[in-house]
Structures are given as structure tokens and as C-alpha cells.
Amino acid sequence: MRVVITGKGGVGKTTLTALLAHQFAREGKQVLAVDGDPQQNLASTLGVLPHDAEKILPVSKSAEYLREKTGAGPDISPGGLLTLNPDVSDVIDRFSIPVEPNLRLLVMGGVRQAGSGCLCPEYTLLAAILRYMHLLSDEVVLLDTPAGLEHFGRAVADGFSCAVVMADPSYNALSVARESAGLARQLGIEHTILVVNRVHGDEDSHNLKEKIGEVEDFSHIIFLPFDAEVAQTEPSIIPLVLAESAFTDAVRTLASSISSREITSRPDR
Asked: 143 with 172: CB under 8 angstroms?
């Protein structure tokens, strides 16, 4: 299972990534959580203590690894040859850290530039890592992304087979979600699940179904009910993992849909 979590900024992607990571790990699956967001908040959200999270070296910030794998880096004068398909088979051993039994974290960091035409060494390295994800022995790989899938384009599609598109009930977030689903489909990602966060009750759910309209863009739709505890537990989601609530029930339903791959062509209504 190779799952990319995407959507508009601020809708809860990092929180959901962390919750899914712990859920799958507690089911006994070997899980790798990958922080692909330049803000690098996934470590503390997973429950890594803040002073330990600050010590984590992102892959893109390692001048030694950049130089070794791409032949370029901040301490090398420009103009040299850039290795476009670096061997990154050692990246997990060198940069991932254990979070709990069955769960590891890899912080990739950001790039100075992003886009399909970027040839900067950081982008080249991180794109190679994403393409490598489908070769890992981990049962589950979860990628927390910046807003949108555009940053790594084809590399995401090569390494991942399922996209969880996150939104909140706002019109803008749902519009971005539909655009993300379209891009995922263009990239050839097989399953695209819409997750709408912070839903207030049945009436809100009914109104959302009208807002969403056509559902052919998504394999499945799941609503996460509003839960004040989510904001109160920041930055760590560990208290949520240990609690029983309608919110965590919905997260488990999402995890089950991903793991079973019994994703219907239309959502339950």
C-alpha cells in the first residue's frame, strides 16, 4: 500500500497521515511515514518529542548525501554534471528514525524550486526517493505532501497507487480536492479517496453531498466528524489514537478501505 495524502493547505493532511500511520502500525503492519511537506510537522504530530523532532536531518538538507548521490550541492560550484537517476536504496537506513514498533519516519524536506522541469539537485534526489517507494518491503508507505500533487508529479505516480485527497467543507477546499483528483487520475493513480474533515452532523453531510456533486472523480468518499479534541491535542495525535470517538472510528473506516482495496466506484449515500 503506497498512499499519498494531498489537498488544500490547512485541512488536516498531516494529522490524518499520522493517525493512519499509527492505525496501520497497531494492526501489525510495517509502516513508513514520509514527510514531504517543507514545514516538516509530521514528526511532532506522530508523537516525537519536540526537542527530538528538531534534531531530525531532512534528506534534502544533507549536503553530504546530495553531493554523494547527485554530484551537486550547496558546497559545489555550479556547472558540473547532475546525476538524474541517483541510487537511493540506502536512504531509509541512513535517514529514517523509529517512532514506535512497526512505524518509522523519513523526513524529506523541501526544495528551492518545484515543478516538472526542475533540475535542481534537491528535487532530483527527492523525486528519486519517491519513485523508489514501491520497492520498499514496508507494507504501508504514507506520504504527507505540500498542497497539491504538482511538486513531484510523475515521481508520485511511479511510487504510489492510492491518493487520499483531503478537504474541509469549504467551497475552496472542495474545488482544490476535485482538481487534485483530476491530476491524480492523469498521473495514473488507481484509487482516489475524498476525505472531508470537520463535518458537523447529518445536515452538514447532506449539504456537502450537494456541493460535491458528481462523484466520478473519487473511488470513495468519507466524512470525518468535527471533534474539538483534535485541536486540543496538538501537536501530538497520540491522545486521539488512544481514545474512542466517532472521529477515530471514521479514520479506522478509511484505513480499512485502503487496506482491503474494496473501494466502491461510488460512495455510500
From this structure: no
